[in-house]
Amino acid sequence: MSTQFELEQPVRTGGWRVLAPFRIREYRLLITAVSLSIFAEGMWAVVMALQVIELSNDPTSLSLVATCLGAGLVAFVLVGGIAADRINQRSIIIAVEAVNLVAVSAVAVLGLLDLLRIWHMAVAAAVLGIAAAFFFPAYSAILPRILPAEQLLAANGVEGVVRPVFQRAVGPAIGGVLIGATFPALGAVTVAVLFAIGLALLVATRPAKIAATEPDPERPHVLRDLREGFVFVLGTPWLLWTLLFASVFVLVVLGPIEVLLPFIANDRFEDGARMYGFVLAFFGAGSALGALSVSSWRLPRRYLTVMMAMWSVGAVPLVVFGFTSSFALMAVATFVIGFTDGAGMVIWGTLLQRRVPTAMLGRVSSLDFFVSLAFMPVSFAIVGPLSKVVSMQTIFLVAGIAPVILAAIAMWAAGMRRDEVANPLR
Q1: How many CB atoms lie within 10 A of CB 362?
Q2: Which of 21, 232, 295, 372 has its CA 20 to 30 A from that of 12?
């Protein structure tokens, strides 16, 4: 029984395999809509930060808004994963895009009418965070319904390149240039237009034709599924300690980058909006190049050691942000951080696929996403007020050095060096 579209067309094995999914209409519409949404999210990161700065030039205000975004995402990510398994994925994706459009349009209209307030931005951020929690599980689940199995790797590769390029590079850069030349409300209008086009493309897709199947009376209860996932993680040291490291890493690193970096750019550069966008763009470019570089070679023999080194030593350049007013140094530092982040993520994704049993992969991946981001809203919430009593230099010094110490503890506690030798993947 086929659940895909247009699979009666023969799939050629020659040429660039990464282009094979584009032969299918539904995928073309879907990835175009997703790319526009990712681009819009990249612009929104700059629009949100600079709009808050225009309303209230206070890191605490941006902490509040960013915290609402993170809290919405973290609070609903497990719900989103369950919904993707039990509700039509196309309907979820269309609903999410419609919600994104309404939220950003409201910000745009209020901004143009000079009625926008910080609490409006906080509510919009929370709504966008909740929407994101439902979008990504649904997108992952819909791909096997519209593509043959042999094209899934190519489709995931396309999304893996599109995301850092559009969300972390092109989107922030264009957003910074646009707002630098105009004003934040116009940036919100542009983001809303991108979401509207994406919504139109998603509505144009056809529902997947899935053959009716008998209900499974033995289907496990949702809570039992989650409990089994937790038990597996707790019983797998390399997995448990990597997730613990990632949680504290997010707590220490993400807040300074997302909340304080916009203020640093605004204070140290004459054209702060444009420079902030370009700094984020270097991160995106580095992340994409890091992912492509690692995926072009065989998995490292010492894969756990290399992965942890990428994430920990790769964070050291964060120290630069506390001490320099040189855009060139900031750009290089951001590129290095992005490169190591992207490279580490490729290794991590491969480890989950190769060392986690297939029957547990969905639950473990959901828990990975949840646990890794659990401290994101906390990081956003505390770094703004903290910056009033602790210098920027100290905050970024800790953000750059702490991951190295944390990684060393995690590797020792989990016995990662012994584990990777005992479980070769080459």
Answers
A1: 18
A2: 295
Q: How far apart, in whole angstroms, are the C-alpha atoms of residue 301 and residue 248?
A: 26
CB contact at 8 A, 419 and 238: yes
* Residue in the structure block whose two tokens are 């056809």: 206
What DSSP string runs through 366-413? HHHHHHHHTTHHHHHHHHHHHTTTS-HHHHHHHHHHHHHHHHHHHHHH
φ/ψ (deg, to 5) at 269: -125, 145
Half-sphere exposure of 302 (CA within 13 A, CB side): 10
Select from 267, 265, 279 the least CA-distant residue to 173. 279
Average confidence (pLDDT) over 157-184:
80
Annotation: CATH topology of 23-156+170-209: Growth Hormone; Chain: A; (1.20.1250)
Q: Residue 125 has what pLDDT?
A: 94
Determine the pLDDT at residue 160: 64
Residues carrying CATH 1.20.1250.20, the chain: 23-156+170-209, 221-426
Instruction: Provide the whole-model pTM.
Output: 0.68
Architecture of domain 221-426: Up-down Bundle (1.20)
In what helix (H) or strand (E) does residue 120 lie, and over which residues does it extend? helix 118-146
In whole angstroms, give the CA distance from residue 137 to residue 362.
Answer: 10
Cα dihedral sign for 46, 49, 51, 53?
negative
- Which pLDDT value is given to residue 215? 44
Residue 390 has pLDDT above 80, yes or no: yes
- For the record, the structure tokens of 353 come out as 């696929």
Q: Which residue has the higher pLDDT, 171 or 185?
A: 185
How is residue 18 annotated by DSSP? G
**3-class state of residue 266 by DSSP:** helix
pLDDT digits (tens, 9 = 90+) for 32-60: 999 999 999 989 988 998 899 899 888 88
Q: Which of 147-151, 275-279, 281-285 has the weakest average pLDDT?
A: 147-151
Give every CB contact of residue 422 below 8 A, 6+ residues apart in sequence.
none
